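We modelled the chain as a single entity of 331 amino acids. Its sequence is:
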Amino acid sequence: MSEKYLTLIFRKRLPQFNSIEEIFLQLLEQFKKQLDVHHVEVPNSGADPLSACKNLHFIHRNKSNINHITGHINYGSLALGKKGILTIHDIGSAFYGGSIHKLYIRIFWFWLPALMVRKITVISHFSKKELSELIPFAKNKIVVIHNPVNSALQYCPKPFNKENPLVLHIGTKSNKNLERTIEALEGIKCRFLVIGELSQRQLALLENNRIDYYNRMHISFTEIKAAYEECDLVSFVSLYEGFGMPVIEAQAVGRPVLTSAIEPLKEVAGDAACMVNPTEVRDIRKGLLRIMKEGKYREELVRKGQENVKRFQLKNIADQYLALYKEITNA
């Protein structure tokens, strides 16, 4: 192995965005057991052409034998050459703004990077399908490697609070479907913990529906871990996800999960979650009440969740990446 064998390249870290870093810094420790690994963080967070050019120059100066863009800065692949790997976490959220901006993203975040890299990893089969439609000319480069569950999340049983259960909801963006969840909770005796910054509309909905809610924002992973352990059930009835980390995080801790009967959440949750139609308030409410009222069903979800989460253990995911690095080295 050379002095610089593998370099993981991270986006500029911002306080409110940590998920990619949490995933790959864990994997980094696994990689170090077998490889000489380095990691760098690009200096600029913007997506404008000037920031992108500065980051490309930085990536070019810091690349090594095998180089892995860990997410978000897809355009960084243009500085890597043919032994580059790009991880794409989701597709839909990249396309916002006007038509010119969307074309810019399509070209520099997807089309050109797909031409340049040796392999593209995605985190679900749903994302693979989406990406294959966007870059059909490079679909043979796409490999599915799921996200790992954080090894700090361990099984932590607690008695279910039947009288006043604590429902945990993570995320307040439009795809997280908080508004319908609030409506579904109307009249149900429970406490509702929302992680994320609430809009005025969301605050008004919480008040109008008389929800006993708590709100935390910009919190650390340690605080999120504590929230999982504190809650009685996790509601994650999202409208769109690239993966759906809260599903397996809740399962790891031993909490019953309510989630959407859509991909990739069905793929990630397996048969270990209560599945509902995320567009139907009545169905969300029905699922919440079933988890709250049926003790044997809750126990079954927790038991199956503990089994399901084994698929996402850190070593299993790290081994898949290591096999991919070896394949590229030998190519």
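As a brief sanity check on the tokenised model: Residues 6-148+313-330 form a domain with the Rossmann fold fold (CATH 3.40.50.2000). The radius of gyration is 21 Å.
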